[in-house]
């Protein structure tokens, strides 16, 4: 005799996984389109998608924990960057409305991810150039109204749902949790054995080297990219629990992987000599395998979900269940 509660939960989990795979496809599809707008050909686009999926924790949050919001934010940010760049390049109204709506959805899913809007300053080539583009948009009352409606529509839907469910127009799901902006953990956020971005997702560090070739051809955009990274990581590191609880690596960076993908493309595309290409591509492939190995370690609890330190990290470094070292043997 079957248990209807268990069967229902199992069925829900199945469809959550299907939904996760769908949104992963959407995110990768629009990330490819976004890279193409920056000149990446099919080979480079496919390669970057492979590296971002297998070389970061995107795979883990797509296939193992799709119930968390990061995968969906990744898809929304990829779409937002694509339509945002199209709007900045061509100034067409449909792209502006889509960008505004997607920004509203990004904020609704995870408010801090509204930081992604700052990347449009990079796409415009400067803050004032972005302002000029917005001024052009608002010269038409119809365009202005439609853009604002696109931005606030997600909020209107959520506010209505809250009102129906709780009787209140606003519900603060975070309670007393907050950012402590005068107490950042920037070094821990980037380098700690507990959750350090560059420790568990080292390919993101390689991606930042893409700012160097960018500097050679567009210094303003290079500075903007560097400031965006510093500002975003600073703010994220100010959360009261800077390591964000149980997670593989820095889970809050998943939604910002499209920016890292673009910088990684700039870095790899800048390698001109045969020796440089071999070295560069060998490095990113090696780091991709390294990330997959650490994903395996985390999946089978060799890497603790929250309490890693230098001693624990090096104790299990290079070990796996295959080699006979598991969570029970530690």
How would you describe what is shown here?
By secondary structure, the protein is mainly α. The protein is built from 16 helices and no strands. The protein has helices at 4-37, 42-54, 58-63, 70-90, 93-109, 119-124, 127-138, 141-166, 186-191, 197-200, 203-208, 211-217, 219-236, 257-269, 274-299, 310-316. Helix 4 packs antiparallel against helix 5 (93-109). The longest helix is centred in the N-terminal third of the chain and has 34 residues, at 4-37. The radius of gyration is 21 Å and the shape is globular. The model is unreliable at 1-9 and 324-330 (pLDDT under 50).
Sequence of secondary-structure elements: HHHHHHHHHHHHHHHH
> What would the average pLDDT be, to the nearest integer?
90
Number of helices: 16
Low-confidence segments, ≥5 residues, pLDDT <50?
Answer: 1-9, 324-330
Percent in helix: 55-70%
Biggest sheet details:
none
* Structural class by helix and strand composition: mainly alpha
Number of strands: 0
Q: What is the molecular shape?
A: globular
The share of residues in extended strands comes to under 5%
Using only C-alpha atoms, the radius of gyration works out to: 21 Å
| Termini gap | 40 Å
Entry keywords:
single chain, mainly alpha, 16 helices, disordered C terminus
List the SSEs and their pairings:
Elements lengths: L3 H34 L4 H13 L3 H6 L6 H21 L2 H17 L9 H6 L2 H12 L2 H26 L19 H6 L5 H4 L2 H6 L2 H7 L1 H18 L20 H13 L4 H26 L10 H7 L14
């Amino acid at each position: 005799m079957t248990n209807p509660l268990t069967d229902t939960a199992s069925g829900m989990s199945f469809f959550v996984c299907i939904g996760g795979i769908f949104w992963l496809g959407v995110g990768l599809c629009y990330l490819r389109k976004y890279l193409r707008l920056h000149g990446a050909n099919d080979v480079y686009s496919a390669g970057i998608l492979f590296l971002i999926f297998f070389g970061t924790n995107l795979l883990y949050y797509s296939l193992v924990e799709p119930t968390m919001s990061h995968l969906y934010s990744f898809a929304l940010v990829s779409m937002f960057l694509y339509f945002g760049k199209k709007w900045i390049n061509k100034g067409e109204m449909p792209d502006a409305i889509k960008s505004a709506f997607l920004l509203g959805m990004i904020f609704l899913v995870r408010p801090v991810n509204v930081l992604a809007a700052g990347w449009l300053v990079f796409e415009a080539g400067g803050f004032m150039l972005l302002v000029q583009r917005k001024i052009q948009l608002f010269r038409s009352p119809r365009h202005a109204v439609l853009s604002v409606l696109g931005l606030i529509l997600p909020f209107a839907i959520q506010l209505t749902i809250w009102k129906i469910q709780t009787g209140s127009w606003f519900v603060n799901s975070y309670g007393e949790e907050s950012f402590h902006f005068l107490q950042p953990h920037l070094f821990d956020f980037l380098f700690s054995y507990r959750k350090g971005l560059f420790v568990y997702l080292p390919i993101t560090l390689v991606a930042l080297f893409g700012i160097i070739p960018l500097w050679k051809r567009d210094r303003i955009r290079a500075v903007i990219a560097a400031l965006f990274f510093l500002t975003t990581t600073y703010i994220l590191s100010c959360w009261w629990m800077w390591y964000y609880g149980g997670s593989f690596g820095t889970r809050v960076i998943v939604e910002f992987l499209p920016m890292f993908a673009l910088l990684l493309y700039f870095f790899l595309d800048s390698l001109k000599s045969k020796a440089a290409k071999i070295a560069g591509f060998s490095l990113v492939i090696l780091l991709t395998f390294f990330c997959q190995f650490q994903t395996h370690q985390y999946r089978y609890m060799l890497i603790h979900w929250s309490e890693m330190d230098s001693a624990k990290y090096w104790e299990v470094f290079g070990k796996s269940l295959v080699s006979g070292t598991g969570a029970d043997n530690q």
